[in-house]
Amino acid sequence: MHAEISFIGLFLEASVLVKLVMLTLLALSIASWAVIIQRNKLLSSARVKALRFEDTFWSGVDLNRLYKELIARGNAISGLEAMFVAGFKEYTRLSKVNSKSPEAVMDGTSRAMRVSLSREMEKLEHHLPLLATIGSTSPYIGLFGTVWGIMNSFIALGAVENATLAMVAPGIAEALIATAMGLFAAIPAVIGYNRFSTQVEKLEGSYANFMEEFSNILQRQAYSEKEAV
């Protein structure tokens, strides 16, 4: 293709404002793909870890031993592991001072696990608003560049006596590239946001179910310890 109708040629011939729009959209597209790759890796890892921990938890392992193993790992725990550690730690602490009040023990334990759940969800939802923002604003940024480029083309066209399509075509083409780049940045961001939001909701449901099941186990243990006192 000739230089004047190639992408690079059209970019170089574009006005300063249209160039800024194109560069902005390129930066947004790069940021969008970086978030998509990072979130996909994190959420995939979170699903695998949740399944692996549930298999271990329901295998009949001793909860005290499991707690000590997770504590030994320090800050390397996340997801269901972090919720289990938060709940079991609070349960153990409260059981020592409120052994005759299972309700108080379980209230404190449930609060600790809810706080842990909230923190884990913040980690999973991190950067998703950025994808939503890119997906919703990129088409309009591209459209702004297109309108500006076409406006300049017609202004230049009105300044000549013998206007031809060949004179205005490059200006319109460079303007339309801005719209194309806006869609190129927006479409993956919208798809990624919707996909990751669904995955986060499923993980949140899995975490909440585990929290209820674990609470039931601790509640039975709390009442059995009360009866033994």
Automatic annotation (TrEMBL):
Membrane disposition = Multi-pass membrane protein
**Does the entry feature the keyword Ribosomal protein, yes or no?**
no
**Keyword terms:** Cell cycle, Cell division, Cell inner membrane, Cell membrane, Membrane, Transmembrane, Transmembrane helix
Domain MotA/TolQ/ExbB proton channel as annotated: residue spans: 80-206
**Membrane-spanning ranges:** 16-37, 128-151, 171-193
Name of a matching Pfam family: MotA_ExbB
- Record carries keyword Acetylation: no
Q: What does this protein do?
A: Part of the Tol-Pal system, which plays a role in outer membrane invagination during cell division and is important for maintaining outer membrane integrity.
Subunit organization: The Tol-Pal system is composed of five core proteins: the inner membrane proteins TolA, TolQ and TolR, the periplasmic protein TolB and the outer membrane protein Pal. They form a network linking the inner and outer membranes and the peptidoglycan layer.
Regarding protein family, the annotation reads:
Belongs to the ExbB/TolQ family.
Q: Which PANTHER family match?
A: PROTEIN TOLQ, TOL-PAL SYSTEM PROTEIN TOLQ
Record's protein name: Tol-Pal system protein TolQ
User: What species was this sequence derived from?
Assistant: Shewanella saliphila
What is the organism lineage in this UniProt record? Bacteria, Pseudomonadati, Pseudomonadota, Gammaproteobacteria, Alteromonadales
Query: What's the name of its gene?
Result: tolQ
